[in-house]
Write a structure and sequence with these properties.
This protein is α/β, with parallel strands linked by helices. The protein folds into 2 domains: 222 residues, Response regulator (Rossmann fold); 158 residues, Rossmann fold. Helices cover 37% and strands 21% of the residues. Helix 8 links the parallel strand 11 and strand 12. Helix 2 packs across helix 11, helix 5 packs parallel to helix 6 and helix 11 packs across helix 12.
Length: 412
């Protein structure tokens, strides 16, 4: 399979900007629908930026192979212009401006992370450019009154809500003692607010409420407190790097905690990096390949995962799956609108009600997907050290029984 993409770094973009031979892209060039995307190919979000790009590319290839997009009696194929935002919000906004005002892009795919989506959304809104985004979950994105922003993923405040409620259920309905540490970005702070809401509603108590360092490379101070206070649950949200740091230092310091719940630990490929030290971690996930959602393009999660691994050489994290789903949403909206008029496409996006291999997608007035729950999977390893991620909550989606409490390090 070959995916034809236009990949432009920021440096080359500047060179092109001042060149006399600028190619003027538009929303449709011949039989191509040109989408724009600024994503993190370098910087602290580069790992998840690559997952995002791979998800986009796989969907572009699949949709184009299976007949493309039919609008006005003609057939079109997707193509994407990529810029590297370097994990920098200011750069992301500049590149969104360039994609729209210089390259003529009239439909956008989102970047990776809530912070970068927050930087780009005012730009796309200003120009009336519909953006389907797959990796910005901050609930504040959906309270700004944006009319052209649509997110296929569940909002950030719901990421670890299910972990707290599960811990309370396992505690006989009584409140639990919670330790938490968060990155100071928009996404993680919304995860934190969701935990505060869940704690209040369940009668639980926050006993440690820490900030992760900017570089996400050390949480020893928080873990020392955990050893001293013995909470029932430890919650960590610091994207891929934060998850890797947490597992490394929990193992080094032999920190015992009955439940460990984190974001982004599937993207971090914990078991590949840390082997059995990652066992028993609970991971908030927008998607897991064992879920039973279906569509005509990727069939189901297991088929998507097998196809993805064949293309890219690794098991897809949810960031890739939701990115692929964004292209399915755009195809559906273009075909229902039967036009490339931006306002009519926006209206078609607002009326989306569909199932994809990734999950159900239906947008509320603020642009968030209100039809798909979060799941928790647990890292489970056998005696030979082979680890798998198995869905354990909510119970209706569970493919394995939750192991709780986590065995103490002295008993492993």
């Amino acid at each position: 399979m070959k995916i034809k993409n236009i990949i432009i770094t920021f440096v080359s973009a500047i060179a092109i900007l001042f060149s006399t031979s600028v190619v003027s892209f538009a929303k449709v060039v011949g039989d191509k629908i040109i989408l724009g995307a600024a994503i993190s190919l370098t910087g602290k979000y580069s790992s998840n930026g690559v997952h995002t790009q791979n998800g986009y590319n796989m969907a572009v290839d699949r949709i184009n192979e299976m007949g493309g997009v039919k609008v006005g009696g003609k057939t079109y194929k997707f193509d994407i212009i990529y810029y590297d935002d370097e994990s920098n919000p200011k750069r992301a906004a500049q590149l969104a401006e360039r994609l729209i005002s210089q390259d003529g892009v009239e439909f956008m795919l989102g970047p990776y992370s809530s912070g970068l989506t927050k930087a780009i959304a005012p730009v796309t809104e200003k120009y009336g450019v519909p953006m389907v985004e797959a990796n910005g979950a901050s609930r504040s994105l959906f309270t700004k009154g944006y009319k052209y922003l649509f997110a296929v993923l569940a909002p950030a405040n719901l990421y670890l809500d299910v972990a707290i409620r599960t811990a309370v259920e396992l505690n006989g309905g009584k409140g639990v003692r919670i330790a938490q540490a968060f990155e100071q970005d928009a996404f993680s702070q919304d995860v934190r607010l969701g935990i505060l809401d869940a704690a209040k509603e369940t009668g639980s108590k926050i006993i440690i409420d820490d900030k992760l360092p900017k570089e996400l490379n050390d949480m020893a101070a928080t873990l020392a407190k955990v050893k001293a206070t013995k909470p029932d649950v430890l919650v960590v949200s610091g994207h891929t790097k934060g998850a890797l740091t947490a597992i490394r230092q929990i193992a080094e310091m032999k920190v015992d905690v009955p439940m460990l719940a984190m974001t982004h630990c599937d993207a971090a490929k914990l078991s590949k990096q840390h082997g059995k030290n990652s066992q028993y971690a609970l991971c908030a996930s927008q998607w897991h390949k064992t879920l039973t959602y279906k569509d005509d393009f990727f069939k189901d999660g297991m088929t998507y995962a097998a196809d993805f691994e064949k293309l890219f050489g690794y098991d897809p994290p949810y960031q890739s799956a939701e990115s692929s789903a964004a292209l399915l949403v755009f195809k559906d909206a273009f075909e229902r609108a039967n036009t490339f008029d931006q306002k009519k496409v926006r209206d078609a996006l607002a009326a989306t009600n569909m199932q994809t291999f990734y999950g159900n997608i239906k947008f509320a007035e603020g642009g968030q997907n209100v039809d798909k729950p979060m799941v928790l999977f647990q890292v489970m390893c056998d005696d030979a050290g082979k680890c798998e991620n198995k869905v354990v909550a909510p119970l209706k989606w569970a493919s394995a029984e939750l192991i709780h409490p986590i065995p103490k390090w002295s008993e492993r």
